[in-house]
Amino acid sequence: MGSNDQNRVTYFPDSVINETTLPQRFTFPFYYEPHPLTKLAAAQLQQYLETQTGLEHNFGLTNDNETMAIGKMFGVLVVADTAGKIGYLSAFSGKLAGSNDHPKFVPPVFDMLTENSFFLKEQEVIDSVNKQLEEIESNEDFHQLKRDLDQLSAQSIEEISAFKNELKTNKENRRLRREENKTNPDPHDFEMVEADLSKQSHYDRHRLRLLTAKWKELLEDTRTRLAQFEDRIEALRNERKERSATLQVQLFEQYSFLNKAGKTKSLQDIFSATAFGRPPSAAGECATPKLLQFAFAHGYQPLAMAEFWWGAAPRSEIRKHKQFYPACAGKCKPILAHMLEGLPIDENPFLQAEAGIRDPEIVFEDDCLLIVNKPAGLRSVPGVDISDSVYSRLKNTLVNTEPLMVHRLDMGTSGLLVVAKTKGAHKHIQEQFLKRTVIKRYAALLSKAIGQAEGEINLPICADPFNRPRQMVCFVTGKTSITRWKAVENTGDVTKVHFWPLTGRTHQLRMHAAHELGLNAPIVGDDIYGIAGTRLFLHAAQISFVHPKTKERISFEVAEDF
Fold it and tell me: Measuring CA to CA, which of 29, 144, 227, 382 is 20 to 30 A from 466?
């Protein structure tokens, strides 16, 4: 082991270790409360980031160059070294200041940026292809030919159309002359007129053929000269695509991950059995795989991990400066399944049904529907691994009736749910949801004081494909998501608000509360977009819709208990 590798470990003082209970199992990476040692490690790393001036990376924590700001996920891994000493390793996701080489942090699993690496050499070729493309696509002759073709095409259509109208007029005039000529008593004069009219008709068709041929030749000549540019562009684009794909496969094979038993697996092998079929972009560049790779390569025992965000939030995701986050599911979950094989790990909380949750309270019932007050912590419908839910509990209590869930609430959200008892009622109420005629009001506690009194949030939302069930804001592919809100009570650093969702997107209220372009205040207890607590303080307090049988609007309300 080189001295530089030894310097990657920051050891805790013996006094700290003596006062701390070491974890018996490794952290479940996708939902965790940071161990005290990881909190201490993260605090030390954050102090380093605050005082280090040589990183030359714009995290967006100052007002300078805000448009170039790139926040980063950092990770710490508490380890026991080969002598049993306890310390921690540090890592960052991706690159930092355009480089992978920083003494404080563990190296990447594969450093594609090393001098004369195949990646850099091939990247130079791809950059050369890009440069050729840029030169052609900015060539003035190329753009002039495109303008000429558009202009000539329009001119040819206009001129040929005008000429055809002229020929149409000529044809009508010939028809009238023929009608007049039918009364001509002199057979010789009759034949002379008919011959002249026929000659005029042939001459008009000849002129049209000449005009059409002229424009065809002119347009084909322009298209041929333009095609020389376009064929070259297509060839360069195909070359770039093929080279990039080949380079990507080469990179995937270079990323080889260790586990406790010393068994290695490449990215390609790891992701071949997943729904992706192939590794997504930047897979293997996250902090936790880097940390585990270094630990296994040097014989260290991983004890606990944690990741936190440092810097300005990206526009699409919800990331708060210094806040802890789980490892990303899409890119890291398949990798960590291999890397953590054989390690005792904390229980997956997603597989643990929460004990002691009361039954949903029936607020209203008739022969068409039920209105229930769902307690926080109970699913609306069964999950893949946990069947306990509003649906399963109602199914056990209703006699000869299949509960038909009209809509859902997040597991952590409490409040009013509509459950149909007949297919007709289900269809009728669902149509009202689709037409957005159902009126819903929620109550929530936000994690900070809100300056405004009320407003409307319009942020399009879509699923984060690599981090489900998280959602993200996207102004290109996101679906329209609109929420009206009103602050009803300010208590120190907490604000109670009422929400009226005008659309019904997944996690809409949680996203609109937490995102910096929304209220920038996560709901208290939000374990996905904020900080986990005793519960998610979000409650579906009121709902109003048209009864499927009586056709009268009915309304129900259950006040929040916070």
Answer: 382
**Is-contact 397 361, C-beta < 8 A?**
no
Q: State how far the Cα of 35 lies from the Cα of 23, in Å rounded to an integer.
A: 8
Helix (H, G, I), strand (E, B) or coil at 205: helix
Q: What is the pLDDT of residues 40-64, one digit of tens each?
A: 999 999 999 999 877 888 898 886 5
| Secondary structure class of 21 (helix, strand, coil) | coil
Using the 8-state DSSP alphabet, how is residue 373 labeled?
E
In the block, which residue shows the tokens 């679906």? 479
**CA 442 to CA 509: how far, in whole Å?**
9
Model's pTM, two decimal places?
0.77
Tens digits of residue pLDDT in 228-250: 999 999 999 999 999 998 888 88
Q: Which of the listed CATH numbers 3.30.2350.10, 3.40.47.40, 3.40.718.10, 3.30.390.50 matches domain 353-557?
A: 3.30.2350.10
The answer to whether residue 221 is catalytic is no
How far apart are the two ends of the chain, measured CA to CA in Å?
Answer: 56
Pair 506, 528: CB distance under 8 Å: no
Strand pairing partners for 544? 439, 555
DSSP letter for each residue of 214-252: HHHHHHHHHHHHHHHHHHHHHHHHHHHHHHHHHHHHHHH
Domain residue ranges of the chain, discontinuous segments joined by +: 3-110+255-350, 136-250, 353-557
Give the burial class of 205: count Cβ atoms within 10 A of its Cβ; 0-12 exposed, 13-18 middle, 19 or more buried: exposed
Q: DSSP label at 305?
A: E
Task: Using alpha carbons, select from 27, 111, 110 the residue that is nearest to residue 76.
Answer: 27
- State yes or no: pLDDT of 158 exceeds 90: yes
Return the H-helix or E-strand segment holding 11. Answer: strand 10-11
Determine whether 544 is exposed, middle or buried from the number of CB atoms within 10 Å of its CB (0-12, 13-18, 19+).
middle
Find where tokens 């920083």 sit.
102
Mark 121-157 as b/e (b = at least 16 C-beta within 10 Å). Answer: ebbeeeeebeebbeeeeeeeebeebeeebeebeeebe
Q: Average pLDDT in the 416-440 region?
A: 97
Check 385, 410, 464, 527 and give the catalytic one: 410
| DSSP labels, 156-171 | HHHHHHHHHHHHHHHH
In this predicted structure, the answer to whether residue 186 has a pLDDT above a threshold of 60 is yes
In this prediction, residue 398 has a pLDDT band, given cuts at 50, 70 and 90, of very high
What is the per-residue burial (b if ≥16 Cβ within 10 Å, else e) of 239-251? ebeeeeeebeeeb
8 A C-beta contact, residue 71 and residue 310: yes
- What angle do helix axes 187-254 and 140-181 make, rounded to 10 degrees? 160
Buried/exposed code over 432-448 (b: 16+ C-beta within 10 A; e: otherwise): beeeeebebbbbbbbbe
- Whether the Cβ atoms of residue 523 and residue 509 lie closer than 8 Å to each other: yes
**Largest CA-CA distance found in the chain, in angstroms, rounded:** 131
Distance, CA of 287 to CA of 332 (rounded, Å): 9
